[in-house]
Design a protein that fits this description.
The strands form 2 sheets. A 6-stranded mixed sheet has the order 2-1-3-5-6-4. Strands 9-8-7-10-11-12 form a 6-stranded parallel sheet, sandwiched between helices. The mean pLDDT is about 95. It is built from 13 helices and 12 strands. It is α/β, with parallel strands linked by helices. It binds NADP nicotinamide-adenine-dinucleotide phosphate (NAP). The site of NADP nicotinamide-adenine-dinucleotide phosphate has 25 residues, from helix 5, helix 7 and helix 11. NADP nicotinamide-adenine-dinucleotide phosphate (NAP) binds next to helix 5, helix 7 and helix 11.
């Protein structure tokens, strides 16, 4: 009898630190599905061939992570989000063709929805720190939710200017020296740099000028509570953390591959937190 187990995978290089198998494995067990989710370590030069034969390898779809997200876009039929962000992280078949999207966009906004319900009503102006791949997903999500002005502060100002060219005048690139002035007007501050991550330099930022009603979000999830979020919480700001975004970005792929829309629950969070904590202790 044919193997009826539906399988998806996460493709990257290296791949062993990916948390996606823990997240999808939890949902597969919770829903008692005859399904599997595996890690696939694939070198960049082997990636096009791997994706061309994804279905023959027994997969109904895949997540794609560093360094393949841009290549995945070129090898699939991207939706508006993936095209706008310039990277695809979730792929699935429609009538035999590989479609793709970028779920970091909804991961970011759904996590904010959960952490601070109604946030779009109170966020007119945002400050985004960083101008890399995750900044593009965050900016696209903020524009989708009608944020009118997004000030992008990045070490390399040219990358901020590229974001203005990509997303239009809603995006205003700025130098770090403008930060105190921009923070004073901000309703939302988002760190999309890797600063503050375990093993990286700290994010040196003075939250003093930030109005008390402003929301603070950090994409970094190792450590679980970054110094930025700890300070923001101590000052009374509403916060949204990187782990929440990681969990919410996984929802859509699971639904597309396995037909059930899973929930981000405290149990799931605890499972992934335990893994992250054990890895940090290693
Ligand atoms: P990326 O494309 O490599 O961009 C990195 C950004 O950080 C750039 O803006 C870079 O500035 C800045 N940066 C790096 N080192 C710096 C330093 N020493 N001083 C000042 N700026 C520095 O990376 P990414 O994909 O956007 O990811 C960024 C972070 O977000 C990572 O920690 C990643 O784990 C996290 N992330 C989390 C999620 C989630 O689901 N929670 C999703 C995606 C990413 P330059 O342009 O000047 O180089």
């Amino acid at each position: 009898m044919a193997n009826r187990t539906r399988a998806a995978c996460v493709v990257g290089w290296p791949i062993k630190h990916s948390r996606s198998p823990i997240i999808h494995g939890h949902w597969i067990r919770q829903h008692r599905l005859d399904a599997a989710y595996r890690r696939e370590e694939v070198l960049p030069e082997a990636f096009p061939d791997f994706m061309a034969h994804l279905s023959e390898r027994g997969y109904v779809g895949a997540n794609v992570t560093i360094p393949h997200k841009e290549m995945a876009l070129a090898l699939s039929e991207p939706d508006d989000r993936a095209r706008a962000v310039g990277a695809a992280n979730t792929l699935w078949y429609v009538s035999g063709r590989l479609n793709s999207t970028n779920t970091d966009v909804e991961g970011f906004t759904a996590n904010l929805d959960a952490a601070v319900p109604g946030w779009p009503n109170r966020v007119k102006e945002a400050v985004v720190l960083g101008a890399g791949g995750s900044a593009r997903a965050v900016i696209y999500g903020l524009i989708e939710r009608d944020v009118r002005k997004i000030n992008v502060v990045n070490r390399t100002i040219e990358r901020g200017e590229m974001l203005r060219a990509r997303f239009g005048q809603t995006v205003q690139p700025a130098h770090g020296s403008a930060l105190p002035h921009l923070l004073a007007r901000a309703d939302l501050l988002v760190n999309t740099t890797s600063l503050g991550m375990t093993g990286q330099p700290p994010l040196a930022i003075d939250l003093g000028p930030l109005p008390r009603h402003a929301i603070v979000a950090d994409l970094v999830y190792a450590p679980l509570q970054t110094p930025l979020l700890r300070e923001a919480q101590a000052r009374g700001h509403a916060i949204a953390d990187g782990l929440g975004m990681l969990l919410y970005q996984a929802v859509r792929g699971f639904q597309l591959w396995f037909g059930i829309r899973p929930e981000v629950t405290p149990e799931l969070r605890a499972v992934v937190e335990a893994d992250l904590t054990s890895k940090i202790m290693e």
